Amino acid sequence: MNKPPYTIRNADWDDDRLALKHVRRVVFMQEQGVPEALEWDEWDAAARHFLAEDAQGHPIGTARLLPDGHIGRMAVLEFWRRRGIGTAMMRHVLAAARETGFGHVELAAQTHALKFYERFGFVAHGDEFMDAGIPHRTMRLEL
User: Fold this and answer.
1) Are 44 and 76 spatial neighbours (Cβ–Cβ below 8 Å)?
2) CA neighbours within 13 Å on the CB side: how many for 3?
3) CB within 8 A of 55, min separation 6: which ones?
4) β-pairing, 70-76 with 104-110?
5) Among 9, 17, 68, 122, which residue's CB has the most CB atoms within a 10 Å radius?
6) What CATH number is attached to the domain comprising 53?
7) To the nearest whole percent, how much of the chain has pLDDT over 70?
8) Which DSSP state fits 34?
9) Is 89 contained in some domain?
């Protein structure tokens, strides 16, 4: 049987920091122009992190779940997009949120990704706002 092209696992900020930062640096800072000062925050140490890796163990995607139920920093390297990694990663994060006992989760979605999150049942609310120069909407999912 062939090994799947990628896996998703729980990651630890202390042990997996370089891999997590690599994906976020490429996607958010290099592609989207997010300033470094806005990318790294005090929540990284407290968050549950998730890491997608290719068959060779190279980092290709990331997401985090904060202690208050906010999902964020979801990113997949460009070469790996539209291959189901984002969907698999979101399923993994939502399963972790349910396992933790959250009644709902929230996220700040870049507006171009609203439809992606709607597929999971997220509902946008509130006005569009700018974060790091990128338009966002707050979305919520009742678990």
Assistant:
1) no
2) 8
3) 3, 4, 5, 6
4) parallel
5) 122
6) 3.40.630.30
7) 97
8) -
9) yes
Q: What is the pTM of this model?
A: 0.93
* Interval 47-79: pLDDT, tens: 999 999 999 999 999 999 999 999 999 999 999
What range defines the domain where residue 61 resides? 6-104
Scanning the structure block, which residue is given the tokens 């338009």?
A: 135
125 in any annotated domain: no
Give the chain's domain count: 1
Burial of 119 (0-12, 13-18, 19+ CB in 10 A): exposed
Measure the CA–CA gap between 40 and 85, rounded to whole angstroms: 23
Q: Is residue 50 in a domain?
A: yes
